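Running co-folding for calcium ion.
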Amino acid sequence: MMMMMMMMMMMMMMMMMMMMMMMMMMMMMMMMMMMVTMTTTTTMATTMMMIMMSSFLPASQRVLAAPVVGTEVPWAMTPDTANTFAAGAVVTANEDPVIVDDSVTISDTKTSQPIFTIDVTDADTTDLVAVTSGFSVTKTAGSSLFSVFKNATGYYIRSGASLSAGIYPLTITATDRCGDTATGTITVTVTNTAPVFVPVSLQTIHPTPISDVTTTASSLYTFDVTDTNPITCTVDNTKFEIKTVGSAYELWLKAGSASTLNHDVTAEESMTITCSDGTDQITSSYKVDISDAVCVDLSRALGKRGLCKIVKCRLRLACAVRLYAIFL
Ligand SMILES: [Ca+2]
Ligand SMILES: [Ca+2]
């Protein structure tokens, strides 16, 4: 009889446990349905789900509900009455980070270097100072010419290795340890730098005269130009031209110039050398003395004074032909 009673009690206990489990499952389902139908966000519903589900886990693995701001929360989440001393934490609200909009102007000669310090703050000072806190500052929109990097003293914008003139708005986003964000716009203006002659002051007078019967093309002067952009150099005297030789530039007298050079007409050829990067340009003047071709003075021998002056041959060959004709 005793045995029977014990068995019945056990069965009743089992039934009660099953009923309790069923009730808990029903409660869970009801709460899930309420969460779906409620006008709360999906995130909130997910969090509540996690909290409910984790109540079946060991205490160390449970997901706890967000503590109420301003309250003191014991580590164990329940008041500790068993010990004389207990540790806890006072919960304070997170402050959003702040980024100050700003602008900076730089030259296009910057290469992979810091160009601007981002003014980013967070009232929760530990958000900024804790190296492994999870606080981050990133470029979330803008030209790939620029990037954000962090060092021991703050967050910076770094330029690319090669820049082009223009205006580049960059969107910078800061995210603190609570996942709260702030965005700011830093506008970088890149200005063009004019080309520079090498040497800075070019030679302006050709060291030796050129005969006005010169017939072959010849290089007169070599110089260089520095700029981050492609350079085009020209000269405004049609008897001359600029050639690119390797990385240097050369001023050349054009071939066939004998037909155009004439000491009697232009004893000094003047010109302006211009080098442009497409936006800005630099110039330098250049002069070449044109010497008169020397005729062989046979006037005395021929008894015809002033023959060469009269002929004024500009080509030795033409002169020779005329003289030969006189001899005949
Ligand atoms: Ca914060
Ligand atoms: Ca330039």
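Result summary
Residues 94-95, 97, 122, 124, 127, 176, 178, 180 surround calcium ion (ligand 1) (CB under 6 Å).
Residues 308-318 have pLDDT under 50 and may be disordered.
Job closed.
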